[in-house]
Design brief:
alpha/beta; Rossmann fold; three-stranded antiparallel sheet; 13 helices; 40% helix; 238 residues
Length: 238
């Protein structure tokens, strides 16, 4: 039995993994889908202090309190920032890293640094909630950008998406064990749609790894193609 920890991206929550988690559990594996502070059902906890470090600690604490080891740690989109920081702080608990159409940060980089073409337009939607600057993710335009077109899936997402704390996007990632993180086996699963829009360095990083797979779909792969994605993730089980 493998242990998967699935970390969502911006404006999402643990809810977004439901179709995929069901398939992985049906195959006999343990699956955790934490919701990061200030998002999803934890939206009410957003504050001026909610940042990338907060989200890294969310997942590190899950690993420690559940005593998880040899984890296949999956990060979608912004979740690539989070899982890289988690690997730095909980190195001994990570077996593999999976970047699901995700950011691939280096130490000293923020998500704004790695994907300015996506983040700069998002900043224009910002507003203040609970004293925190947040950017809008709960919109039909955002869902369409994620590549979700099925009306039922669109309704499901629209009822659950929340604004995202901007501070987590602009905070730089500081790594103490970057060379050790690079030695962890890692897989890239990319959406064809996103590869077309990545900047050159982002695209180069997205095509590295022990496994590099591509799915012809939009950014929210776990919602639009859960069966294809599950089949790929199950290939990683030793």
């Amino acid at each position: 039995m493998a242990t998967y920890v699935l970390v969502h991206g911006g404006s999402h929550g643990g809810w977004c993994w439901r179709p995929l988690a069901r398939l992985l559990r049906a195959a006999g594996h343990e699956v955790h889908t934490p919701t990061l502070t200030g998002l999803g059902e934890r939206w009410h906890l957003v504050s001026p202090d909610t940042d990338l470090d907060t989200h890294i600690v969310d997942v590190v604490n899950l690993l420690e309190f559940e005593d998880l080891s040899d984890v296949i740690l999956v990060g979608h989109s912004y979740g690539g920032m989070v899982i890289t920081g988690v690997a730095d702080r909980a190195l001994s608990r990570i077996g593999q890293l999976v970047f699901l159409d995700a950011a691939h940060p280096r130490s000293g980089e923020s998500l704004v640094d790695t994907a300015p073409n996506f983040l700069e337009p998002a900043r224009k939607t910002s507003r203040i909630v609970n004293g925190a600057e947040v950017v809008n993710g709960a919109s039909l335009e955002f869902v369409e950008q994620m590549g979700v077109t099925d009306p039922q899936q669109v309704r499901w997402m629209m009822a659950r998406l929340t604004p995202h704390p901007w501070k987590s996007f602009e905070q730089t990632l500081r790594l103490a064990n970057e060379s050790a993180i690079r030695r962890i086996p890692h897989t890239n699963i990319n959406a064809s749609w996103s590869l077309k829009y990545r900047l050159a360095e982002s695209r180069r990083r997205a095509l590295e790894g022990e496994h590099t797979w591509e799915i012809d779909t939009g950014h929210d792969i776990m919602i639009t193609e859960p069966q294809t994605l599950a089949a790929m993730l199950l290939k990683l089980v030793h």
